[in-house]
Write a structure and sequence with these properties.
Rossmann fold; 24% strand; 7 strands; 7-stranded mixed sheet; 36% helix; 266 residues; alpha/beta
């Protein structure tokens, strides 16, 4: 059971993504670089790159990053904000992967793997990733600590406004397989998960940006109801704010998946 990405689902969400979504810890990026043995001779593919968070993060460590995404608005933002000359942006989806893109030491995927035909994508990547290379899935979450006491209420508001989103419901159905299950049945079945936990202080308006960056609560999907969503979130987050900022504890995670030593010939 897979969820395909409806056409232009992130069109109106793109402008809010960089401002709203928690950034991946720079320490996590460095740890992934070390564990994957990345250096200035390597190429990285950032698949489903969105506005280029990971492409920009890995750019300084490698020879070239290919940043691939189907949404033109995301790629336009990525081009304007990446700041690295060694990143090449390409419009396309996981179904557009082809040998012409070349070979890579690592393929990074941030918050996008669930939109892909995951098993088929991993099979294609098997022919594009170097023998000792890796697929790295990035994500973030909010641990259940006092500083995140706002999070449950925030999530409930998002759930209320996401009601009726068929794609979101599909991703949360009991039949939906976790990424680990898909990876275990793929060539990249040897996994290691690492995480970095950080306390951050975030401007209150970034939380409305965060809500509008989700495809299920985007302005495109909600229409006039987007104003109601913003109003509810502003009222909620004001209760937890100090001088216009809210404390949050963010856990940035990376799931590094490699071929088994037997299959990689090492």
């Amino acid at each position: 059971m897979e969820a395909s990405l409806p056409e232009r689902r992130f069109r109106s969400a793109a402008q809010y993504y960089l401002a709203g979504r928690p950034f991946y810890s720079s320490l996590l990026i460095r740890r992934v670089v070390e564990l994957c043995g990345l250096n200035a001779t390597h190429r990285v593919l950032d698949l489903g790159c969105g506005p280029g968070q990971l492409a920009a993060a890995f750019g300084p460590f490698v020879e070239e990053v290919i940043a691939l995404d189907p949404e033109p608005e995301m790629l336009e933002i990525a081009r304007k904000t990446s700041g690295h000359l060694n990143i090449r942006f390409v419009q396309g989806a996981s179904s557009d992967l082809a040998p012409q893109l070349g070979r890579f030491q690592a393929v990074t995927i941030g918050r996008a793997f669930h939109w892909m035909e995951r098993a088929a994508t991993l099979n294609v990547l098997d022919a594009m990733i170097e023998p000792n290379g890796a697929v790295v899935l990035f994500d973030d979450n909010h641990p259940d600590v006092p500083q995140n006491s706002w999070n449950n209420s925030f999530r409930k508001i998002i759930e209320n406004y996401s009601a009726g989103d068929v794609v979101r419901e599909k991703l949360r159905s009991p039949e939906w397989l976790r990424h680990e299950a898909i990876l275990l049945a793929s060539p990249f079945a040897e996994m290691e998960r690492i995480s970095i936990i950080e306390r951050r202080v975030t401007p209150i308006e970034r939380f409305t940006d965060r809500a509008l960056s989700f495809s299920s609560t985007s302005r495109q999907r909600l229409g006039a109801k987007a104003g109601n969503l913003i109003g509810e979130l502003e009222q909620l987050m004001a209760k937890f704010a100090s001088n216009g900022h809210v404390a949050e504890v963010v856990e940035s995670t990376a799931l590094i998946a490699k071929r088994s030593r037997r299959s990689s010939g090492t």
